[in-house]
Amino acid sequence: MALEQPFDLLWPLALVAGALRRGPWIAGALMIWGPLARVGTYWLFPEQRGHLGSMLHPGVDSLMAGCITAFLVRSAAAQAHLSRHGATGMVWGGVWLLGLSPLLGELVNGFPSVYGYSLDALAGAWLVAWPHLIPGPRLHRWLGRGTLPMIGVISYSLYLWQQLFLSPTGLLATGHLIAPLLGAFAAATLSYFCVERPLLRLAGHSRPTTPCITPP
């Protein structure tokens, strides 16, 4: 929240001040700023070294990757690029996030803080953009049915509550996995039905019961 709440307040102001057309340039500049801020914070404020990914000024690039993607997928050129190279990018994005990035994080001292967070965010953005923009019939069937849509419905509540159950210093540290997972999903489900949905109704907003994935 120390990262996201300031972003929620400041990003709209940045777009208003710079105009929407400058949004991608602002996001790109902040993507470059992120690694520089992490390195600077690491050396100038050593007591903050354990929080580099959870503060706004050194962690903003992870959010900017999503902002850049939101701008780019609206352009015809980006859509054509995703159409041609999306599947290949999905493969490399998965290889990077599941293999290369963790490996380099173990082998290269300081790699995550300098480049890793930024590259992970960009890979994740690609993995989100391509299925959303060009889902394809098979991918649509896989993502749009079964338990995945239900997980998508409670995903924000799950994101908020999971830290209580899945913290590396909690039950996971003792080797337990099933109980923390069940606890996280139970808390998220209760939060969604008892807090999120009533508040959305009170605010006069509606939300789809399943994620919106439009088949081609």
Give keywords.
mainly alpha; 9 helices; globular; single chain; 216 residues
Task: Write a structural description.
This protein is mainly alpha-helical. The chain has two domains: 4-134, no CATH class; 147-203, no CATH class. 75% of the residues lie in helices and 0% in strands. The protein has helices spanning 4-18, 23-44, 56-72, 76-107, 111-133, 137-143, 147-153, 155-166, 178-203. The longest helix is centred in the middle third of the chain and has 32 residues, at 76-107. It is globular and about 40 Å long.
Estimate what percentage of residues fall within beta strands.
Answer: under 5%
Number of domains: 2
Low-confidence stretches: 209-216
First-to-last CA distance: 36 Å
| SSE run | HHHHHHHHH
Largest sheet: none
Instruction: Quote the average pLDDT.
Output: 84
What is Rg? Answer: 19 Å
Q: What gross morphology would you assign?
A: globular
Q: Please give the count of helices.
A: 9
Short description:
The radius of gyration is 19 Å and the shape is globular.
Fold blueprint:
Elements: H1 4-18, H2 23-44, H3 56-72, H4 76-107, H5 111-133, H6 137-143, H7 147-153, H8 155-166, H9 178-203
Helix pairs in contact: 2-3, 2-5, 3-5, 4-5, 8-9
